[in-house]
């Protein structure tokens, strides 16, 4: 069979896109023909990698300087997608025509709509020869009454309606009864991960999703804060971006949890992030399904989830592969966290069962079920008359849109326009459109501008960065090994013998070459870089063929779980070095780079606590002797040094207490940075404090420490200022992951 998925914007990100792509990839792998029809194309390349066997067909190209952007029909409101549809304002007269033209020309056996507005178009204008399918990725409780009424009126030609849960299927049958439409529950699929599952050694709770109030991350942070004091080695990591980020940052700072709660930002591939954890956490008020739950389970994590109305309860078996917590019960959520954080054996048992139980969501299994039910409709229906003419015409692809008017859901072609304007109803619609076209277009543009401004600036930057990333360059998987060395697997089929991996230091130009060994019948080339072979620096990674120019490597997956656990540097350093840490990462332009630290002596920061009077730093010393003094050096032309004593804790760590008023008393400018060093007694040798054995590349974005506000003026009367300065002090990590403190008196 040939399947066509009609989707809003396959060039963007989102759960629907992932679910459709997983199902489409499984179908094409089973020998079916598949194309994904994206109503909109807004970037050069899709955000998700798409199998080459799947045809991606955009209907409307709204990239800069494309003809569709200047088409006047783009500024006329859609007459097919109802106003009750969430994305109504993004649709137009032009999208109406393009969708109709595609449906009239397609030879697909099965046409699948993927959101209510598109499903209505498929229902009304899908060809008779095809199975017309409506996928409902949104839970029925979130569909308003007006849209449900539109569904009842429009879905009479839908053959199959798929919901992602049994609860939603039941709600659909009772809330939107549509004669002759079969409603079936088909969960979203999650493919077998390509990275090994989590081993449960890292003390990390992982959560992922859009930072939206409905996800209730504030409740998750509050629950974690209740148990974090009894489990100081544990961290909570929240991946994602969205409008709630500033509020969550403020909550973390107010709770004094900046070291234990980390907002990690959005990740295109979460598989290498899930495996860094030992527990997955979901705190949503509502979940239409819960793909993140299945993703975490498929990577060996037990999941603690709120028992929201649909989704989690159909995935998690309480006490078997995870824990379900009553809604709005903060004490119960904190208790569930405490239980799994405390009981290693229970956590391991649930993790193992999660791996087994999540296999039922494999795309191949669900694709077979999906295809069987579609085929059954075709068999029941029998051969459709006139289908051969459609097939013969389909090679032309979607045709250029034509001017149309809509009445009762039917489109009227341009040649009939003049005649039909004799109809007073149609004449009134056309007259209204012509009279108000300019104002309607202005309102549509204004609504789109407002929506764009509401989108997270960080997400927009990520999208632009991904869209601008070069497509050329060999793909590479990189993994940090237990000894902090690197293993790199490069996709380079047909590469001639004698090629090698080349690492080049950005500053010095120094080069390190590593031989490549062919694997998988020559499809991949593997290089293993021992930890002691890469000096400190920032390294760009290349594939250097025997002949020809070197090629920058583009990372596919980067597995840094070894660094995420905060493993202590070797107590018995090899070669005289206390710390060797190599952190691979993706650069802003999409290439692989490695940041390496090699230190004979080092102070690894473990914890930073702030009070109204001091910054307290706890660190692990790596090297000979024990420092007895910390020194803060002011950066810039006005050099100054402030000495602070070092105290040994009961656990053998070092503690440095920096009095903020002393730094403020030495200020000469309105913005001053102070770098922290340790000095051994009787020597002039100084060692920097930092957080080097860690998987976070840009720590400024993740370790968000609060500011200490100095209420009382320290007594430095250089110049009388109006308004008075707002003096504050804050610790932070530099670009090189070393610890500094900034003193600011800007208003």
TrEMBL record:
Keywords: Glycosyltransferase, Transferase. The keyword Lipid metabolism does not apply. Pfam families: Glyco_transf_4, Glycos_transf_1. Residues 13-190 form the Glycosyltransferase subfamily 4-like N-terminal domain. Residues 384-403 are annotated as: Disordered. InterPro entries: Glyco_trans_1, Glyco_trans_4-like_N. Residues 197-354 form the Glycosyl transferase family domain. The keyword Transferase applies. This is Glycosyltransferase involved in cell wall biosynthesis. It comes from Micromonospora vinacea.
